[in-house]
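--- STAGE predict ---
source: upstream dedup step, 1 unique chain passed
mode: sequence only
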Amino acid sequence: MNIDAMSHEQAVSSQGAERYILGELTPAERDAFESHYFDCSSCFEQVELGAQFLGRAREVLDKEPEPGWFAGIWADLRRPAPVFVSAMLLCAVGIGVHQQSVISRSQAPRLETHYFVPGDAKGAAKVISVPRNGALSLDINVTPGSQFSSYRAEILTEAGKTKSSFPVPIQPSQDTVTLGLTASTMDPGTYHVVINGIRGDGSVTKVGGGSFELRFGD
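--- STAGE serialize ---
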């Protein structure tokens, strides 16, 4: 069964990014949010910032305290329940602090680079040059089929390591799918795109893909 993506308004009103980072979404909500935020630069950036902030918070809370009166307080914070609560609070505060800057950046004029990536073929990968802080959209040829219940895109490095993986909505009549990526989260280099069709029994078949070489023009 195809997954209906959340709208941006639903993601904001339901605090989708915050609840996604904290693992509070139901499986259905998580799938719907994932279908949305990989195509939404604003929500994608919120998740990135929140996850980074939570990771740093955990690093801070895991550090050994300095000797003295503060050590007792810090020891309390290091106990399981307070650490979890503190991390949640820090994450929420961090997202709140960045919210305005994220909104302002998303509302400001932003250069989006759009490329068509041809299917796998012999020769050099498609060269793509983008501003480091710009948005990147890729059109990929696909061959959908009625035997597939859903589809998933994977972005792989040249070494074959998965850079990102996310669901993509594809209709039977489509022959291309557009993937929205955030260039600032990627390093220069060659990447491979694989679009897989997923059957009800979990088996997968490649239905599209291509390769590109990412370069930064600023």
